[in-house]
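Changelog-adjacent note: as of this version, every example in the card shows the full chain rather than a window. The one below runs 256 residues end to end.
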Amino acid sequence: MSASGQKQICAPHNGVFALPPKADVRHGNQNAAIGRGANTFDPTQCAQRSCVSVYLPLTVGPREEDMMIEIIEILRQEHRNLEKLLRVMEQELRVFDRGERPDYEVFGAIIEFFKKYPDSCHHPKEDIIYEKFKARDPDRAASISDLQAEHREGAVRLRRVAQAIEAVLNDEEVLREDVDRIVGDFIDSERKHIALEEEVVFPAIVDTLQPGDWADVALTLADRYGPPSTADFEEQFSTLRRNILELEEAAVARRS
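Full-length structure tokens:
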């Protein structure tokens, strides 16, 4: 907490929110402060090396708009990262549909990623914001979507994908068109879900939440994602995603 009663939030670009170490907060020292003045902290001392220079003081006013934009952009970036993996899965499905052998290592890695990452890192962020939205305007929230239910349905579809791929690998009797339908349904449903959030849910949330709500959201995210161990956990998923993309590049090169 700064001398003016402001709490600083470090919002790294990989979606991890972290409170700066207590010793790194500058109490009115203009010479030591970096960026927006006295009540900031040195980014070189931030617990996460990947932090960008976005420090969000929790006070009512224009800064809450910055905070809102940053939080929503983190979720949008995570959607873009998920779409990259959906495209890879789609590409491998096309190989399967041609009667060729897709890279099942890539398939398996994407399945494992979707089993763990959304519920561990992405959905909890959305749930925090959505719960605040429901509290602020329950009727509007109910008229739009039940995000938690959609997330559960996505997990069910993913299990069907895992079972279908496992059946193929075990040489079980399974129709090729059934595998195509199951995997394709997962891909299409995930894209529709992302589109719903991007085009309907997020705009409604931005329109509804008040500056104080965003301050509460940022603090909750900081409490949940602040510890370095949690940040490292998200970085492990980033590494896994990059590895999947590299595996796919190698698979495409072998097939060309």
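Structural remarks: The mean pLDDT is 77.
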